[in-house]
Amino acid sequence: MKATIEQRTTASNLDLLDRYWRAANYLSVGQIYLLDNPLLGEPLRKEHIKPRLLGHWGTTPGLNFVYAHLNRVIRALDLNVIYICGPGHGGPGMVANTYLEGTYSEIYPDIGRDADGLRKLFRQFSFPGGIPSHAAPETPGSIHEGGELGYSLVHAYGAAFDNPDLIVACVVGDGEAETGPLAASWHSNKFLNPARDGAVLPILHLNGYKIANPTVLGRMGDEEIRNLFRGYGHEPLFVEGDDPMPMHRAMAAALDEALAAIHKIQTEARGGKRSERPRWPMIVLRSPKGWTGPKEVDGLKVEGFWRAHQVPIAQVRDNPAHLRLLEDWMRSYHPEDLFDKDGALIPELQALAPTANRRMGANPHTNGGLLKRELRLPDYRAFAVDVKNPGQTVAAATHELGKYLRDVLKLNADAGNFRIMGPDETASNRLDAVFEATDRVWMEPTEPYDVHLAQDGRVMEVLSEHLCQGWLEGYLLTGRHGFFSCYEAFVHIVDSMFNQHAKWLKVSRQLSWRRSIASLNYLLTSHVWRQDHNGFSHQDPGFVDLVTNKKADIVRVYFPPDANTLLWVADHCLRTYDRINVIVAGKQPSAQWLSMQDAATHCDAGIGIWTWAGTEDATREPDVVMACAGDVPTLETLAAVDLLHKALPDLNIRVVNVVDLMTLQPRQQHPHGLSDRDFDSLFTRDRPVIFAYHGYPYLIHRLTYGRANHDNMHVRGFVEEGTTTTPFDMVVLNGLDRYHLAIEVIERVPGLATRAAQIKQGYRNALIAHARYVREHGEDMPEVRDWVWPNGTGGATPAKSGG
Amino acid sequence: MKATIEQRTTASNLDLLDRYWRAANYLSVGQIYLLDNPLLGEPLRKEHIKPRLLGHWGTTPGLNFVYAHLNRVIRALDLNVIYICGPGHGGPGMVANTYLEGTYSEIYPDIGRDADGLRKLFRQFSFPGGIPSHAAPETPGSIHEGGELGYSLVHAYGAAFDNPDLIVACVVGDGEAETGPLAASWHSNKFLNPARDGAVLPILHLNGYKIANPTVLGRMGDEEIRNLFRGYGHEPLFVEGDDPMPMHRAMAAALDEALAAIHKIQTEARGGKRSERPRWPMIVLRSPKGWTGPKEVDGLKVEGFWRAHQVPIAQVRDNPAHLRLLEDWMRSYHPEDLFDKDGALIPELQALAPTANRRMGANPHTNGGLLKRELRLPDYRAFAVDVKNPGQTVAAATHELGKYLRDVLKLNADAGNFRIMGPDETASNRLDAVFEATDRVWMEPTEPYDVHLAQDGRVMEVLSEHLCQGWLEGYLLTGRHGFFSCYEAFVHIVDSMFNQHAKWLKVSRQLSWRRSIASLNYLLTSHVWRQDHNGFSHQDPGFVDLVTNKKADIVRVYFPPDANTLLWVADHCLRTYDRINVIVAGKQPSAQWLSMQDAATHCDAGIGIWTWAGTEDATREPDVVMACAGDVPTLETLAAVDLLHKALPDLNIRVVNVVDLMTLQPRQQHPHGLSDRDFDSLFTRDRPVIFAYHGYPYLIHRLTYGRANHDNMHVRGFVEEGTTTTPFDMVVLNGLDRYHLAIEVIERVPGLATRAAQIKQGYRNALIAHARYVREHGEDMPEVRDWVWPNGTGGATPAKSGG
Prior knowledge:
Xul5P/Fru6P_PKetolase (chains A, B), Rossmann fold, 23 strands, EC 4.1.2.- (chains A, B), 36% helix, homodimer, six-stranded mixed beta sheet, alpha/beta, elongated, aldehyde-lyase activity (chains A, B), 26 helices, Xul5P/Fru6P_PKetolase_C (chains A, B), Probable phosphoketolase (chains A, B)
């Protein structure tokens, strides 16, 4: 903030500002209604009206009001401000304002700043082949869709972290404050450091109504609202009314006061004068829904009521009175005072918009790829677990990853563009080596015995997956990098946020002007097979099923079976863009299979034969393929191979390990998919495949149903049997353990069932003995717990051309 | 509340209460640690200690403190109270208290009230074959798992609605208040009517820490906490400290005050003296995490810190100093003063527990099936849309359903046991006929122009799917009935709540003492194919994929293709128990296919051939099967049949319509699954099947991969292509429209492609014409929009034995 706040608002400049607002309102209404006659050069006729009237008016005048006032302070104080529009369905307003300031025509030159451009601007809105009805990736200046309400404020904070010069104005409205994620987001101020981060200026827009009801907060009195937001750590400034000019004066004064308060907080914090969490300003804007629109339609109240939410006058094409009402409404903005006869905004109004990158539609933070810097990554091989022989070394995969992430934090500490998110689980997920490089960010008071809490920490922990996800999205969308570790079962809490982010990425990739942003990287750990201690509520591996519904060019799913493969995969994911990478890996100490060199070869292919693990005789096709994806399924598969090899030494077993789940899909469906030829060379065309999979078994069928050998694929995985028990009992309950796998091999290999009936019975007896043992001793049988892969040599044979 | 509050707490009865608390704490520690020696009759030895120490101590003493104090007021005032334990991982406390009051031994007679019972009680906890570590369905008095934090308070409100005599004490702790759903749940008080509903008494347990961090609210000062909760509409009463006896006095006083306030509020409201929303009391309990546990272990702070969260002393079996520390800790409770030598709680402590159903573990509201009354349902046939010939009548399916639901509301108005939930969308989803029978519940001020808002409304609308879902869960779990209508895309917001409820039902069904509760019924409408106006963010049909991962005996998914089938399905769902029923149906006016009689036959089978729609010659196998599930896919399939029949009159097409998606699964996997024989008789064993499906096409492959004809199944559905456009353009973008379907028929029927090359080209041309038309006119081509199924006769041939 270059100037101190001295800017006084005079009647004349507020009059101009009011006209600017009217211009935005006029363009908003035009987008909803008009095909043609954009300047109302002639009386409105039916042919000028769109056949389908789509859009949301109610929130829009308020959004426009805020935009115009932000323009004023940006110019006056040369501020760096972006605008997060919570009620993103007010898309016409965001489009109108970025058009008025000139950004829109720069990005979309076809929509010029003249009458023809206006006509196209109106026509394209919510029109086939045009633009969406909501603020969306297509909208300049937007990092936030807002179709699914709830995430505006958490996105705002994500944008503000590590951007000390940035002010993120965030409008929350139309009922969004009732949602859970938004209600929790207010506490984000406990994680924002005024010395290092930018500021968030929440503008709670209480226009009173949502689709068909009053809003809860809209009907609360000022005293409750003040208490609530003081409780959240804010000082609310109220702007209330419906008469435009007094409202302009009140809003200008409130904004001046809020910005002065922000300036003071930041100056004190950066000057070392303040250490406690400040009380940040916010604005509570009470204005009528559908402000300046028709007061009544067909005798029913519209302005200031929920009927203004979408299209206030609905029968414009068929009802001449409605057509007249629309024309009166549009002319009430006096377009002739706003645009010249060629359709250009008049110069004195153009002068109200900020210029160049100070325009909120052109601010590079809203097209984060422009600002993105490459992450500096350490050599992942330096963190290799030394695996001389498979299965002989024990390590905790996530613990090793923690050391790698620690160095990522160190290497990018100066750039300040990498954060780790986790719902209070970074240490629990054994990534605690990161605390050698940084701390958890914490703005509340600390006690002498606190551990790894600091105002400048880069690990963000809060018991809300919504906040972790939303902060990270906002951080990535503004050009930074991050990593989110989460309990596997509870990542479902953010299913819907994942959906929306995947949609955002899909559309953004189709827009040439949107630059690539860093991928959203999930580590799902404390997974289903190692939640034996927390029980059934913590056991759900279904997030991957959701992920694989999304566009193939967006999503990746990895199941590294040990530490070295996890290191390779994590390093790979941190180098990618515009994707959502899901890594599923356990945190418990367990056997390590591949040296780093073998891990790299294996992961690069994504899938491969583990020749050292199989008992294959290279001269003939295997009798059976034992496939596995996931650390625990890999362990159980190898233990089953060990059992079978000892009992049936002539059985020809091939072991295939899958790291990159997408290799299973047909190449036509996913860029990582194996060709049918490569798939068949791994899985054969006719041998039984016993597939031990980490999650719900149906997913493997869904990915492979078109493959030649699919009828012979028998998949085992989590079948929703869980409780608090031992680790091995968990796999037994779901039939994924070594004995069940070995039994199925015996049953599926032609001719083997008879010959190996005794052996099979032995496995059944082992299961009975196990059940008895765990219920008596409360822990797994030593022969299971202490099982070690027999000494051998390592290495993987990659798929012929997967990857 | 029979008595006014006069109960004074004397030093002597608080001393007894303290001993009761110590008994609960002792039993909690015993469960975490001990295999044997439950009364410490001999010095603790390694053999007495469990091999795996699982459980959460930190929250438990606070939970026990609250339980003991609630016992006091229940007895003193003969109150009807249930206890919702937000930090459900404090399972040992809930088990301990229900054991102390005698409930536990009544439900599980094997766990007697003697030394042997104590030994078993300790041993079974978190032990294979025993009970889970968290409060769970197995726990008497629980309706709330609490493994996934966030839903305690919303469950509490669900339980309180329509239970005027009930007080729901709800402990929120261990960081749960940081979650989004919980943060929004406080606003539930705007929907609780003190004249009709019970009371919720929130107890915010600020013990300062979650797993590895301070909690956000725990570090906020009293002033911010007071502001925050006054803002939420509560009056917080603070109980703070760590010295037991002053804390007992403070807690007793706070509870007395809170209950007096509740009594006053209810009395005034029920006497007609109060109409505005009251400020409800709540308690803020600040006590040390792991209170009364070891202060330090190995020189590190434990009591009053996050290290007390789980098992405070970890090396008890191997470290004699730890063993000694545990013994000292347990003896600090003086078990010899609490239990007699046979292990029974001494009589003066037994006397502190309420009796019979007043015991919180035995309160029938926590085993809602005990209180459940059958819903009175109108005859769904009375709401039939008159369909003389298929396709000739137009109706909006959900609009018709609204009339049925209106009468359900009327018939059960006196019983007061049916509610409808929806996130501000009941009218938008065209269920508005329900407002002829009731209103939306609304406790905030109303304006003269408000519509259908009332303090005693039975429709609950709030812009939070979390609240809708959670209220309904709490309502169902306490023995009532309900219906939740939701935008299809945004039901993903509650994916994780759905998961947890499904898990709860699965376990409950295995417990003979838990009685069946009403099913959770979802209507997903405003679905993917009719969100053309809101765009991509509103288009996601993936919830069903999540649902089908759950246990077959819990979940059902229905795709009624028109109004009469929707009526049948909704009526059916409202009659079921212990299930989660998902109904997907559109709200837009569209063609009706089946008379009510045909609808009943068809829905009863769940799947069937629509002979009137096909062009089958009964003397031979069809050339192609066109299958459809969902209203829009059914429409497009029939339009494709119409196209093909006109162009290729000798083509033998069978139409199969799927209402009950579970019929597609093998019978071994789902009770509704068709036998292979029945499946083959519908889908043939070798003819091409062109399957038009409502959602992601992979799901159909997953359900049918094992069927004989699977290799010939070609499924079309939503492939994640969406935007704001026209309805027909939406299906075209995803290749689900009539032309793409007809083209695929031509390509898949052997020999047809050559013969019908011209026809196929005609369909391609139609798609090009469509694209041009919508981009020019902004609406669908009249020939598509106005297409009507040619006149014929209706009726469906059901599957041979599906159902």
